[in-house]
């Protein structure tokens, strides 16, 4: 490399350091690492015992390093075990999977959120999840979560959650979520998903949360034989008009097979925004399903999207058109973040 090349490289490094000074200094330290290796070359052979080994009331970041492999188990991080970083070795090589399903209905979760009994719900949607995190302050990187229940027979599908995220201040980087119906239960709390892969067909991103999906790839796996019945990418709800909540998709893309509504209203306070997303032809012309629950407080919006599925000429008439200030409120990281992202490892 000549002198000119060295000078250019140094200049580039200086620009990067000036642009992201906080990221280089603000990451929280990890106090210890627990290794999971199904071949027996770690502290544990499966993930749940590693989670169990973290003490209740933990206040220091603990890394659970999951070595490459396919781990068939259901994993739960209870609310008492905060500050866990679940680190895989790549979403294509490190996977937690299971095949449980729900015999109830998606409204079991709705009932619980409205203050109803959790009895029936306990054996339903919640319990079908392959991976459940209820603790605050959680991070996952480079790992996949799958529910394989509807993987082969899609004639009589049932709810089968790959991951349920129910704590506050959770972030997922480079993770994959694969299922068919109800893949990702984005339950409650503030969540950040970056460069993630999410595959499903029916209500496959659903919940009451306040989340940003940054540069994520959303893939429909509706079989071509089912193409007359569209699926739903999202099914969102909020507790009330003054409650926080909303699913915001920034960048990334929607693709796959079959046909998809961008979303349906789980209740009249549903809030979903697609911003600068590349949409393939799987998105149907009307965009949103207004068959029920849509009301004056329903907030479905699209801004600056591209691709054949982004044509808004035939969109439902009640889709919201946001002002510049409203757009900024949703797409700015402050929609979910008051400083907690920079305090993660």
CATH class: Mainly Beta
Main sheet overview: 10 strands, parallel
What is the helix fraction of residues, given as a range?
10-25%
Give me the CATH architecture, please. Answer: 3 Solenoid
**Tally of individual helices:** 6
Structural class: alpha/beta
Determine the N-to-C terminus distance.
Answer: 35 Å
| Oligomer description | single chain
Task: Write down the overall geometry.
Answer: globular
Strand content: 25-35%
Output the strand order for the largest sheet.
Answer: 1-2-5-8-11-14-17-20-23-26
Weakly predicted, low-confidence segments: 3-25, 104-123
Q: How many β strands by DSSP?
A: 26
State mean pLDDT (0 to 100 scale). Answer: 88
**What is CATH's topology name?**
Pectate Lyase C-like
Number of domains: 1
EC number: 3.1.1.11
Catalytic activity: [(1->4)-alpha-D-galacturonosyl methyl ester](n) + n H2O = [(1->4)-alpha-D-galacturonosyl](n) + n methanol + n H(+)
Family: Belongs to the pectinesterase family.
GO molecular function: pectinesterase activity
Describe what this molecule looks like in 3D.
- The chain is 14% helix and 31% strand.
- It has 345 residues and is α/β, with parallel strands linked by helices.
- The chain has a single domain, classed as 3 Solenoid (Pectate Lyase C-like), CATH 2.160.20.
- The longest helix is centred in the first third of the chain and has 17 residues.
- It is globular, with a radius of gyration of 21 Å.
- InterPro entries: Pectin_lyas_fold, Pectin_lyase_fold/virulence, Pectinesterase_Asp_AS, Pectinesterase_cat.
- This is Pectinesterase.
